[in-house]
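Try this one yourself first.
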């Protein structure tokens, strides 16, 4: 990860000459700064032990690692991220109450970031001279939606449907708020970028709209075009659970059933395989006409691991520095999608077998928000890159006649730029790749067997006594043991 050297023929920047003692002091300070900048381990390195435990489906160990890290990271800019990891790992380990406490802590911290804009002032200044890793991780829209969706599932597993309803409402509201929030963030990021660079800096809007930059972005992120996308910031799992919840409860009145119908109709418009959804919509019509739910079993399958982020280098044209437009290499994130997941779940009953179909792709959900987020990332990265480039030019001008001490200062400045030219690659690592579902009439013997193409063994599940049973199956990696829990809606 490096930065190209940039030479500016003209600039409004001026600086005074340094004496030899001052030069040596500044050089030493820059050297220390560069060590500090390079010494902060990335989130990927910090979470390597968690990823190792998670990949092997050792969920108990993953939960311990995430819990310990979340405790150590109190007050850290990565606190929200570790709480999300903790919540997901504890949920996989069957510790639903502890999982919800972690998710609630994350939700509270996220709300604080949203409500108190002043907490960003100091860290925004730090990001302007380092990189976006200096900003607190505030959670993406998909993080916010999923944490409330997971909380709803935890409450259902705990037999607390009213609390689950609250979380489903929160997930719905998060989806509604996300579009407007992102539009505001793009505008704010561009304004802040212009303010941070100052009079001797760049034309942010012109740089962002530069055709050469847009061409590089289009080429670099062309692989994201192949994914099937949903409506902006919509998670079909959260919408489906909303519909299933109000369909499945015996006390649902006409307005609740209408809400269920609207949610399920929305899901039907998002996914390719709609047979199971259409059957649910038919059940709603039956209930609206006074009918009762017949014994039905739903199987939700969570499989694989969600996408991660890699670093790529893109040349930025720095419009505004001079008549001759210079370019500088800046680090940006890119998406990497993981394979080695179980492609489907087979459910065997004494009356036949059933295959799960895709309900929601986290790859698509995360990638779509990644694309929506790029204008913010570009604007903020541009501000930080230009600020450091301007400082490096001033440093070079101020020390070009300072001999060996000046050379040390210039080298320190270059090292600092290289050390801080890092993309923000933080993301929720314990999210799955996708969610799938199937449903069928509950077998009379109330027994089912679940299996995957690469699983070592089949798992028999004895269904509870409910009329509407939900079996939740999780597979982290291909061939690892399946994790199964269940709950009833009535």
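Now uncover the answer:
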């Amino acid at each position: 990860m490096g930065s190209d050297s940039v030479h500016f023929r003209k600039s409004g920047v001026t600086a005074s000459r340094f004496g030899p003692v001052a030069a040596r002091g500044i050089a030493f300070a820059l050297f220390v700064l560069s060590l500090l900048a390079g010494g902060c381990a990335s989130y990927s390195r910090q979470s390597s032990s968690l990823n190792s435990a998670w990949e092997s489906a050792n969920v108990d160990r993953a939960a311990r690692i995430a819990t310990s890290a979340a405790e150590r990271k109190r007050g850290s800019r990565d606190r929200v991220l570790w709480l999300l990891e903790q919540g997901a790992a504890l949920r996989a380990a069957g510790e639903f109450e502890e999982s919800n406490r972690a998710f609630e802590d994350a939700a509270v911290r996220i709300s604080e970031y949203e409500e108190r804009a002043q907490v960003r002032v100091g860290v925004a200044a730090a990001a302007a001279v380092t990189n976006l890793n200096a900003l607190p991780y505030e959670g993406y829209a998909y993080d916010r939606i999923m944490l409330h969706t997971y909380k709803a599932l935890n409450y259902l597993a705990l037999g607390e449907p009213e609390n689950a309803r609250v979380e489903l409402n929160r997930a719905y509201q998060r989806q509604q708020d996300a579009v407007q929030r992102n539009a505001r963030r793009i505008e704010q990021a561009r304004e802040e970028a212009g303010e941070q660079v100052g009079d001797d800096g760049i034309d942010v809007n012109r740089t962002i709209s530069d055709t050469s930059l847009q061409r590089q972005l289009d080429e670099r992120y062309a692989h994201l075009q192949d994914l099937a996308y949903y409506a902006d910031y919509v998670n079909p799992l959260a919408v489906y659970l909303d519909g299933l919840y109000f369909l499945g409860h015996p006390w649902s009145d006409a307005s609740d059933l209408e809400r269920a119908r609207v949610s399920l109709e929305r899901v039907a418009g998002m996914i390719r395989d709609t047979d199971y959804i259409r059957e649910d919509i038919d059940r709603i019509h039956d209930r609206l006409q006074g009918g009762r739910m017949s014994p039905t079993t739903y199987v939700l399958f969570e499989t694989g691991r969600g996408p991660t982020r890699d670093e790529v280098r893109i040349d930025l044209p720095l419009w505004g520095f001079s008549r001759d437009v210079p370019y500088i290499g800046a680090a940006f994130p890119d998406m990497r999608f993981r394979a080695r997941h179980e492609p489907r779940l087979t459910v065997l009953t004494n009356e036949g077998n059933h295959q799960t179909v895709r309900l929601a792709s986290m790859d698509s959900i995360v990638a779509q928000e990644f694309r929506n987020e790029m204008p913010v990332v570009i604007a903020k990265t541009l501000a930080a890159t230009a600020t450091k480039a301007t400082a490096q030019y001033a440093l070079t001008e101020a020390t070009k006649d300072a001999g060996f001490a000046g050379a040390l200062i210039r080298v320190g400045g270059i090292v600092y730029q290289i050390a801080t030219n890092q993309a923000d690659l933080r993301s929720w690592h314990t999210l799955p790749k996708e969610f799938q579902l199937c449903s069928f009439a509950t077998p009379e013997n109330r027994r089912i067997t679940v299996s995957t193409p690469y699983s070592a063994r089949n798992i028999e599940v004895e269904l509870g006594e409910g009329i509407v049973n939900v079996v939740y199956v999780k597979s982290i990696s291909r061939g690892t043991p399946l994790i199964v829990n269940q709950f009833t809606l009535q």
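Discussion: The chain has one domain: 20-488. Residues 1-29, 34-40, 118-130, 196-200 have pLDDT under 50 and may be disordered.
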